[in-house]
From TrEMBL:
InterPro entries: NAD(P)-bd_dom_sf, SDR_fam. Signal peptide: none annotated. This is 11-beta-hydroxysteroid dehydrogenase-like 4A. It comes from Branchiostoma belcheri. Coiled coil: none annotated. Pfam families: adh_short. It comes from the Eukaryota.
Length: 149
């Protein structure tokens, strides 16, 4: 990569998020990672260390990305530890596999929208000033459910 950069990513406990974090670790990124499951975050951090990012260049923030305080803490702690944000990866997402428009209750709808949309907008708003400064990038991960009616 040629330069040190800070990648901040939400939901890295497993799957695409974990794979993306490991890929950035192989590129030499400093990582700020978040997810709800502390044990899975530790596993991801270990995989990132094995891929090349030193342990002291990994920040873990455990919590629900829908929680505004978790969002603020993630950004503030990232800036405090690394002094910058170069890449934001919005990766958190949930779905309701068996539900249809006829069977989805509004509480479940709100939960899905809070994770998949509201948290992305809120975290992006918090990061934009830092990303503007570093001429950074935002990556929004979606799924095939994004085109499901």
């Amino acid at each position: 990569m040629g330069r040190s950069f800070v990648k901040m990513q939400n939901s890295v406990s497993s799957g695409i998020g974990k794979g993306t974090a490991v890929e950035f670790a192989q590129l030499g990124a400093h990582l700020a990672l978040t997810g709800r499951n502390q044990e899975n975050l530790q596993t991801t951090a270990k995989a990132c260390v094995e891929a090349g990012t030193p342990q002291d260049k990994i920040l873990l923030v455990t919590g629900d990305i829908c929680d505004e305080q978790v969002q603020k803490n993630l950004v503030e702690q990232t800036i405090q530890k690394f002094g910058r944000i170069d890449v934001l990866v919005n990766n958190a997402g949930i779905s309701q596999r068996a539900a249809t428009i006829e069977t989805t209750d509004m509480a479940e709808y709100d939960r899905v929208m809070n994770v998949n949309v509201r948290s992305v907008v809120a975290l992006t708003q918090l990061c934009v000033p830092h990303l503007t400064e570093t001429k950074g990038a935002i990556v929004n991960v979606s799924s095939v459910n994004g085109i499901r009616s």
